[in-house]
Amino acid sequence: MKGQFVARFLGSDAALCTEIGQREGHALVSAGEAGHLLYGPYMALEPGHYRVDLYGSANAASATEAVVDVCMKTGQRVLTEQRLQATRDGREGLLAALTFAVETTCQDMEVRVRVGRHHQIRVGLMEVHKMADFPRVGIVVVTYGMVPAPLVNSVSSKYMCEWYVHHHGSESLKEDITHLFADKKSHLHFHCENRGLSKSWNDGIIESVKSGNDITVIINDDVEFLREGFDDWIEFIMRHRDHGLIFLTGEEPQEDGTTVVRPQDFACFSFGPQARELVGAFDERFVPAYYEDMDYIVRASLCNISTYTDERTLCRHERSSTKRHNVEISEKVSYFWQKNRDFMMMKWGSATPGAGTYPHPFDDPKNSVFIPFRESIP
After folding, report:
1. Which of 304, 308, 300, 294 is nearest to 348 (CA)?
2. Fewest beta carbons within 10 Å, which of 13, 28, 237, 322?
3. What's the alpha-carbon Rg for the chain, to the nearest Å?
C-alpha cells in the first residue's frame, strides 16, 4: 500500500542533484566515479509516516554495494538506510522502498544514493507517499546519572515515536539531555530528585496513553538496541496487540569480559491494555526502586494477563550502570533493597513471585490487586 501521494520527481528534475552522475533523458546515470549519484529534493514534510520509492535499474553487483538513505537536518540525522535491490536483467524496476517517520516538522528531507566507481545504476523516478497505517509508539525513560545517548541514537525507527523523559538526577545534566532530544517529539520532566521509579513510570504511562499512542514501552536509560532491534521488537508487539506485558531478550556484558544473553524483564517492556485495565499502576510505595517489578509480576499473575518475551537478541544492557557511576546511589542500594524487600514480604508473604505468595495483598481478601492511576486513562 503506497498511501497518499505527496510528490514525484524524474531523475532529470533539477530538485534532484548529483555529484558524479550524468543526466540521460529522464534518468540520472552513474558515470564511473564513486560518490553521490543523487541527493535531494530537500522537501518540507509535516510530522507523519512516509515512504520513498526509487525506480530505475541496477545489476546485482552494483545493488549489493550501493546505499540509499533518507535524512534531514542538513544530512546530520539519518532516518533510514538500506542497500539498493537489483532489477531483473537490468530492466527498469523498483530499486528501493524506504519507510520512515518524521517526528517534528522537517524542512529539508533528503534522499541520497551513494555508488562506487564500477557501479552501473540508473535512477529514473522518485515518489513520496504519506502513510496512514503505522502505529504510534510512546517511549518512557527515567534517567538519573547519565545522558541516554546510546539508547536514543539506537532508536532510528520507521514508527512515529514520542518520548516521555523523567530525570531524577543532577541539574548538571539538564542541558545535555535537552540537546539530545531537541529534534525528537519529546516531553522532558526535570524533577532532579529521586522521586521513585514507580511514580515516574506511572506518570509516563499516563502521558503516553493520553497522547493517543498505540503502544507504550518503558526502557531503562542504559539499554541500547542492536541494529534494527527496536523496530523488530515493535513488530513483535504488533502481533500481540491485546497483551499485558511484552519483554525482550538482550546481551549483558560481564566484568570478566564475557557476555550473557537473557530476558530483560522490566529493564525493557511494553505496557499493554490488559496490564492497564486489569492490574493498573505500579505500587509507588516501593521507593525509590527495587521490588516494584516483583510486586507487579505477582499482581499480573493473579490477574492472569498475557505476557510474551521476544527471544531474539535485540538490545545490549549495561545493567546497574546507575549504581556503578553514582557513588551516592551505590552507598544506599543495600538499604533501599532491604527496605523494599521487607515491604514485599509484608505485602505478599514472600519476596519471590509464585513462591508462597498471598492470594491477596497483605493476605486480606478486601484488598484488590488493582491499583488505579492517579488520572483516568482510556
Report:
1. 294
2. 13
3. 24
